[in-house]
Automatic annotation (TrEMBL):
Record-linked SMART domains: JmjC (SM00558)
GO MF annotation, one: 2-oxoglutarate-dependent dioxygenase activity
Alphabetical list of InterPro entries matching this protein: Cupin_8 (IPR041667), JmjC_dom (IPR003347), JMJD6_ArgDemeth/LysHydrox (IPR050910)
Coiled-coil portions: none
Biological processes per GO annotation: positive regulation of translational termination
SUPFAM superfamilies (UniProt xref): Clavaminate synthase-like (SSF51197)
Residue ranges occupied by any JmjC domain in the UniProt entry: 121-276
Protein name: JmjC domain-containing protein
GO cellular component terms, semicolon-separated: cytoplasm; nucleus
Record lineage: Eukaryota, Fungi, Fungi incertae sedis, Mucoromycota, Mucoromycotina
């Protein structure tokens, strides 16, 4: 515990879904869950070994487990991975390079290199290193992207002692969950709203909270900070839009997903509209020189490049979820879990009617925001999608 820390709630016993929904997903509050949640994972049994002396090691500042380098190398050595150099900054990120996992393993103990964003399940679909915990399984982003067979937000991270992830908030203001297989992570969380204290007068964000120019960032001390040490085996829930920095202690392996659902839909939607606004402002001088629809199209292309999604992707995701919700309510037991892969066991989610309402609220807000939306979607051949969503969801509201 340090400085102006506010406590993060810790659950030794696994919370029920309903409890987690009411106390963490809806109010958007961080949580830490004890090792019981991950105790049956293959990754926790096969990937790590207990450190010598860890039983009589009273030093709680050191990890209890360490990676089994030979096993990992034998299983995954040939995979290509993306590695960040933690002492070379590249604008708001660290300098990245691609290498084989075998090459990374040799660098790992140095404490300078950090393997990030490894789409592990995509690379090894049969291996089943872990199961998505039930409290995080209602996940629209991965459901949509996997159905489209395009991408996913399911990652493995491996870093040496002293490696870190600079201050940031997650893509699309998604939630994230992160389970430590070994090592300790020191998390600094900034509650939403306080990130304004972490910016300079040009809007640039502090890169490393442990080491920054106090003249350039004079207000950092004013920000509330929640600091937590996440130990081997435990899982942290990172709420939507909370900035955070992560510093690794010891050799760490973690598994994390970015995800979203009806509970943070409003936040993800507002993040998309604010990114779009930034893009529009950045090319405002071109607005007069092109027809309005060409301007809209250019902004969408830039939005896709800058934020990883655009209006079309957002509408397609909502349509995919709406179709599933509609089918779900038509089936007598409200549960299609048996027809879905285990990742998307659908029994644990908010009431379908409430989810439908959240989507419709966002669509309504959106229609009022942009007169060009329908025209743009028509141009992209997607004009019937919004009607389709409304057709599927409105009867759900009436069914209650
Ligand atoms: O573990 C890390 O280094 C970063 C993880 C992170 O930023 C997240 O889970 O959102
Ligand atoms: Fe993050």
């Amino acid at each position: 515990m340090e400085g102006n820390e506010v406590c993060i709630r810790y659950y030794e016993d696994i919370p029920t879904y309903d409890f987690f929904l009411q106390n963490h997903l809806l109010p958007n509050i961080p949580a830490l869950i004890g090792p019981a949640l991950t105790k049956n994972w293959k990754a926790r049994h096969e990937w790590v070994t207990k450190k010598e002396n860890s039983n009589n090691n009273d030093n709680k500042n050191q990890p209890e487990w360490e990676p089994r380098l030979d096993y990992l190398n034998e299983q995954f050595g040939k995979a290509m991975v993306n590695v960040a150099d933690c002492i070379e900054r590249d604008f708001t990120d660290q300098k990245r390079s691609d290498m084989t996992f075998e090459e990374f393993i040799k660098l790992w103990p140095d404490g300078r290199y950090y393997l990030k964003d490894w789409h592990f399940v995509r690379a090894y679909p049969e291996y089943q290193a872990y199961e998505v915990p039930h409290i995080f399984a209602d996940d629209w982003m991965n459901e949509y992207w996997l159905q489209e067979n395009k991408d996913d937000y399911r990652f493995v991270y491996m870093g040496g002692d002293g490696t870190f992830t600079p201050l940031h908030s997650d893509v699309y203001k998604s939630y994230s969950w992160s389970s430590n297989i070994c090592g300790i992570k020191r998390w600094v969380f900034i509650p939403p709203g306080d990130e304004k204290y972490l910016k300079d007068r040009f809007g640039n964000l502090v890169y490393d909270l442990r080491n920054y120019d106090h003249q350039q960032f004079p207000n950092v001390e004013k920000a509330r900070k929640l600091i937590y040490y996440q130990r081997d085996g435990t899982t942290i829930f990172v709420p939507s839009g909370w900035h955070h920095q992560v510093d690794n202690i010891g050799m760490t392996i973690s598994i994390n997903h970015n995800w979203s659902n009806a509970c943070n839909l409003g936040l993800t939607f507002r993040s998309l509209t604010s990114d779009l606004y930034d893009v529009e402002r950045s090319i405002d001088d071109l607005r007069q020189s092109m027809p309005p629809m060409e301007f809209v199209q250019t902004c969408q292309q830039l939005l896709l490049a800058h934020s990883g999604w655009d209006w079309c992707i957002f509408v397609k995701m909502l349509n995919c979820i709406s179709q599933r919700l509609s089918k779900q309510i038509k089936s007598p037991d409200h549960d299609e879990a048996e027809q879905q892969p285990p990742l998307f066991s659908l029994s644990l989610q908010p009431k379908v009617e409430w989810q439908a309402q959240q989507i419709l609220i966002v669509l309504e807000e959106w229609k009022h925001k942009s007169a060009f939306l329908n025209e743009y979607l028509k141009q992209e051949g997607l004009d019937d999608l919004i009607q389709n969503i409304e057709r599927s969801l409105l009867p759900l509201l009436k069914s209650k």
